Amino acid sequence: MTRTAPETRSPGAPADTDAIRVAVSTVIFTLRRLPGSDALQVVLPLVRRTRDPHEGQWALPGGWLDVTEGLDAAASRTLAETTGLAPSYLEQLYAFGAVDRSPTRVVSIVYWALLRADEITDATVENVQWFDAAALPALAFDHNEIVGYALWRLRNKVGYSRIAHGLLADEFTLADLREVYEAILARRLDPANFRRQVENSGTLIPTDRFRTGSHRPARLYRYNQDVELADRGPLDAGH
After folding, report:
1. Is pLDDT above 50 for 10?
2. Using omega within 30 degrees of 0 as the cis cutoff, is the peptide bond preceding 53 cis?
3. N or C: which end of the chain has fewer CB within 10 A?
4. Which of 149, 187, 185 has its CA nearest to residue 167?
5. CA distances, 19 to each of 8, 65, 72, 192 (Å)
6. What is the mean pLDDT of the chain?
């Protein structure tokens, strides 16, 4: 079996059309207030396919793994090429390789990313649109299943880690933090219980600054950087 020499191929092109192809896709989560709603929603960008299979359907951003690059580099490259986004938090999620997931044999290495509001650019990228992660249309390939798995992982991980920090500014109020948790978990949390859990978790550091407005001033907090992003969080049952 022959392989095309790397220097004769464009970046991201599959090395051999007769072999198992390896693709890289990314589920990017951020929070937005959608039209007609005051509550934050978990949203993600999708890319409209411009060729078969599934021409015209929405799909996760991604592309082929180049023979000369690593998986992390491929995830970053394909994200930049398809959406123009560069998330600060990017983690490998899972490998999806069902035999019938594509007309040709394709294994997708899926990443997931968290994007803060200040990391979203105003530039409009062609064929990219943001969707409510909990109310998606029928996506290309098995991408509905992939998004569902990523949401399940996010909701589980937010309970035992400080992963929510990937969706917050550097300084935030406890109300800001609770709103992020409520958006991810899709349920309301008791403010008093949440405050007690957060204050006992050892993951937050109070600052001497306050946010002022129509209500009484609210203290601003920051995360304890000595705690890794994927380590324990304020809702960890162990605290």
Report:
1. no
2. yes
3. N
4. 185
5. 18, 13, 22, 57
6. 86
